[in-house]
Amino acid sequence: MSTSATASVSTHILDTSVGRPAEGVAVRLSARTGRTAHWQALGGSATDADGRCKDLPALPEGTTHVRLDFAVEPYFEESAKKQADAQQDAPANRDSGAFFPEVAITFAVEAGEHYHVPLLLNPFGYSVYRGS
Fold this sequence. Notes:
With 132 residues, the chain is mainly beta. The protein has a single domain (8-128), classed as Immunoglobulin-like. It contains one helix and ten strands. It has one helix at 73-86; strands spanning 8-15, 20-21, 26-32, 40-46, 52-53, 65-71, 102-108, 114-116, 119-122, 125-128. Strands 1, 2, 5, 8, 9 and 10 form a six-stranded mixed beta sheet that branches. A hairpin with a 2-residue loop joins strand 9 and strand 10 (125-128). The radius of gyration is 17 Å and the shape is elongated. The two termini are 14 Å apart. 20% of the residues are buried. Residues 9-131 form the Transthyretin/hydroxyisourate hydrolase domain.
């Protein structure tokens, strides 16, 4: 265990429907200092070409819970548009395919630990886990 007074968080997104990183997904980070404390919005970022957020804000000292909010609907809308543009015979009117327009992941943290939380995403489902 690290001697740092705060936990740290990182994430990345893999679009499992195409087997590629999900680029351009907005991610917001919030924290609280106990189960009954109010959420404090810390800021956000967007995933890069590798599906990673490399510049999420640091967590405040005393953080016990973290929430990552992923805005996935715009990503799927853009993906559907790119796919339609690439196919001459594609239907002109396509659904965005985003059954879940947002994904919110809340987890507990301990000071000094690093938490890498990947999001495995497809248009009709998702899963997360604590990575390394």
